[in-house]
Amino acid sequence: MSLFLIIFSILLIVANIYCFISKKYLYLFIPCMLFLPEYYGIDISGSLPVITVTRIMFVIFYIYVFINKKRNISFSELKTMDVKSIPKEYMLLAIYFIFRIIPNLCYITTFGQAAKTLFSIIFEQTFLLIAIYLLAPDKKEIDTLIKVVVYTAAAFYIIGIFESMTYIRPFDALYTVSRTMLNEHYVRLGLLRATATFGMPINYGNMCLFTLPLIMYMYEISRHKRYLFIALLNVMAMIHSGSRSDFIFYGFILIVYFVFVAKGLQRKILYIRNCLIVLLGLLIAIFAISWDSQYYTYFYTGTVKSVLNEVGFDFDLSEGSPDGAEGFGENADYGSGSRLAQFTGIEYTLKTSPIIGLGSKAQTRGDVQYYSRGYWHPSYTYDVGYVEIFCDEGIIGMIGYICLFAAMVLAAVKKSGQSCLIDKKYLLLFVVTYMVGMLSTANMFGFLMVYVVFCVFARNCTDQ
Hints:
The protein is mainly α. It has helices at residues 3-21, 25-35, 53-68, 75-80, 88-106, 112-135, 139-166, 201-222, 226-241, 244-261, 265-290, 294-309, 336-342, 344-352, 385-413, 424-437, 445-457; strands at residues 41-42, 51-52, 187-188, 191-192, 368-372, 375-379. A two-stranded antiparallel sheet has the order 1-2. Strands 3-4 form a two-stranded antiparallel sheet. A hairpin with a 2-residue loop joins strand 5 (368-372) and strand 6 (375-379). The radius of gyration is 22 Å and the shape is globular. The protein starts with a helix and ends in a 7-residue tail after the last helix. 40% of the residues are buried.
């Protein structure tokens, strides 16, 4: 047992006790739900889900909510409740959960993973949203929660950059389970791709993408310059994840923000100025790091070339490689094409089991097939969230997800007499960001559920 594991676990226990007693447990639980690794926990049996530290904290959080809830759910009131009085977004959420449970129930006697997925849907998603509903956080609590998530993310940006440059991965010490779980190590362009606690570099890159709108929101409500620095760390961490797709997604999100969120000439000018400040800071940081170092120069120039190759250029990514530095890797020639090929998995599922899909985690069993290079072949990975949804849970599951996103959009644009919490333009940006991120990685349900919390339980009621 490493010293880091012991110290980290003791500090986490102390934080749990303090935040529970001081009624601040929401601010500890949500960041831990997002950032703690799945391999940090206790492994009892391969037929059961891992008892992760995060799942233990779910139980503590539900107890905390029971003690500190602001709302109550009365079964007698539910019996007399008029269905028409239930908000439509809640009805859509109910459809999401029902339609995800159905295909997994159909496979519960066939694949053990179906039972684990059912447990996750009920325990980590349904109960979570019910708990947040009962807790009924106000605007101050929501803003504080977003602030804590942004600060936690900033720490992980730094850790990711550090491990990329030094090859030192401190969170590997938290790998306490006996079974094999996702925790990959890849070298690209001479540096280790940042992963931190997210199992794969692309997941780490998407974490950077998913937290970007939260940074924008915190700057909007505070105008504190520290969030520009955090945005700089965010982009640098994304670069060190080695994810080419996130470069493109960042550009898309920045354009969406400029066109739809930054309303008015003054806000657009401020936005452009801040983007230029972050870009200038990024260039200065890269120049300082690369000064007199052919390894970092190769990494940063190679990264730019790899992104340009995605839009039609044909740079040699091995050109200028210093001695001992690995090149881009086997994925250099495929790029986004490998992810586009995964959409053929939907075609395969439509031919095989269109209604309920192939069963949860079908890719780990090799039950999914993709068509590429002229033939169908089994695949053991999902790199596209939409493909994961359809192949695992079929048409029923896909309808469920459509209802989930519809609930988020409906809640974001809904107007009522209650006090405003978050501008609806930011809530819609959250939805767009997650849906874009699904194009490059399997679903990251922690961030999805947090976005649902912000959209459904912190919806805007009047234009700002």
